[in-house]
Structures are given as C-alpha cells and as structure tokens.
Amino acid sequence: MFEFRIIKQSAGSRARLGVLKTPHGEIMTPAFMPVGTQGTVKTVSPRELEELGAGIILANTYHLYLRPGAEIVAAAGGLHRFMSWPHAILTDSGGYQVMSLGALRQISDEGVRFRSHIDGSEHFFTPELAVAVQEALGSDIAMVLDDVPPYPAERERVAESVRRTAIWAERARAVHRRPDQAQFGIVQGGVWPDLRVESARAITAIGFDGYAVGGLSVGEPKPMMYEMLDVTVPFLPADRVRYLMGVGTPDVLVEAVRRGVDIFDCVLPTRVARHAMAMTRHGRLVIKSRAFATDFSPIEDGCSCYTCQHFSRAYIRHLFHAREALGLRLVTIHNLAYLLRFMQEMRDALAREEFETWAESAYAGWAGDPLGPGIGRAPDAGLP
What we know:
The chain has 15 helices and 16 strands. The chain is α/β, with parallel strands linked by helices.
C-alpha cells in the first residue's frame, strides 16, 4: 500500500523525480506539503487545497492528541474523514512541539513529561504513545518521536539527542502495527557532521519506510544547513523517500532537492500570509504597504490562482487594513498556489532533464532574502 519509485535521476546533481504511492493517492516528488497542524490548513478549505493541486498535507500529533483527542478522531472514522480530506496525510510526531515547551517539559530516556500549552494539564509522551496516537489518527505516514535539540546546542546535548532518538526509534518500530501506514525515522545530529553520520547509520539500520532529516531549519545559517544535507543524504537509502522537515523558501527547496531530498513541509506560506506577505517569483511582497493603495493589478501577473484572477493588490490591502478575514484567505491561497506551482515547475524540469538549467534562475527573486531556516520550525511552530 506504500511504495516509492524513482522515475528519473538528474545527471548534474542528486535531484530525482519520483512517485510516492499511498493508500490515499499518488504524489509526484519533489513535493511540498501544506501544514494543517490541527487538522486544517489555516483559512483554506479542503476543496480549495484540492483545486490548488495539493496531494498531501501535514498534521501534528501533539496538537491533535491534546485537542480534540485521538479517540474522537478515531470515532469519526480517522483523520481523513474527520477533516474531509481524501488525499494523503503525514503526521509529525509532535516531538518538536513538546521540546519547544521549555520549562513546561522534562525529558528522559523513557519519554517526555510535559504540561499542555492549552490548560496546563500534565501528560507523558513516549515513543509508543506517539505511535498509538498516529495509528488512531490513521495518517498515511507517521513520524517517530525524536529528541530535537535547540540551536545552538553544545555537542554533548546533541550527542545525547542522537543516542536517545535512536533508542526511541527502535521502540517505535517495535510497536508499529498498522499495515496501511508508513513509518518514517528521523535523523538528528545538529550541525556536527560526525554526529549526523552516526545518527543516519543508526536510524537506517532499524529499517523504516522513509527517512527525515530533522534538527535543521531551527535557526542555523543556510550554508550550514546545506553542509549538513551534503553530509547526511548520502547515508540515506536511495530507494526510500527523503524528507527535510520545516523548510519552504524557494531557494532552500531547490538546494535541498539538488542534494537528493524529496518532500518538504513548512508553515511559511500560511504564516506570512497572516502578516500580509505574498510570495512571488520576484520575492516577497508586503501587501499592506502604502504603495499598493491604488494598485489595481493582481498580486502576481500571470498567476492563475483564484486570488490573482479576481482581486487586486489595492483591494487585498484594503481588507487587511479593515481587519477582514478574507484578506488572509486570499493571500494564503496565492502563497500556496505559488509554492505548489513552483514544485510542479521543478518536477517538469527534472522530467525534461533540465533541472540545473531551470534552477539557475528559478529562485533569483529570493536569493539573499532574510527569510531563512527557522520560519517553519520556530519555537511556536504550529501554535496559533
């Protein structure tokens, strides 16, 4: 029920075109997953996501465990039916969210004891519980619980994370039973090359359906992220999906694909939309700016999304200044359309065997943009 197949390999890099088969449809890779943390991609309906071409979204185990509870989602027939989304879903384990609670949590080899950010109630999250919750949710892909160190972190703390993540991964693999759900392991190691290799070897030895590179996009400089990908990816099996967690700027997407990564997620397009920032091929555009008060052109010329086909910059600016929710929805729709189209263009270039040529100018408008790693894995990632 779960299969990954490479269709074409780029001659000039590790980039590859593939297809990921899940119980809820096939996804062409490289692919970007919109983030629906609490069972919804903020301000956008499932029908609109379908129209935008999204084939897979991400939801978060931590949040759904706390509210409404895995038992309620299971009683509804699983997360797909609960949120009326017929396509694939990946559930993050919630490890990053738990680790981000700071003083509200205590970590040990047994698991993580934490207090809910909602009501202060106490909970104990273990690798086994993370598996059980995700099996109840019924996602197509479930992530194991990992120990995510902060950035920057001392080598000793990162080494502890590598050791603990491997122990937790073995425990998670041992109890995973749902045959229609793939399980992915996560590689840690911070910005220490030898620890990255150690973690990759330990996690791949366990044998998962796919592998994620975790612990990046947490504030480190982009060149450092790329260096860690160069170190890590060669140790991940070529016949398994590779997932870089928490990135969504066009430049990082291209550079990660160039290094052999297949799927991505990030709150970037929805989060910045709530702050009136639109994503375009020329870079970001702050729609609330005074310069757009009488600009009756679309957010981006040539864009076929619903927003650009029907509304002007001036109107959307007005909505934000009037505090109308439609403004956030319209920019969110455009941002998702932009990133999903960007990934389609990338796949087309790979299919034509022109990835490197396409990549030379694909993200020119974003080169040097200060939006960098961390936008999708900020300390409040997934929180309202």
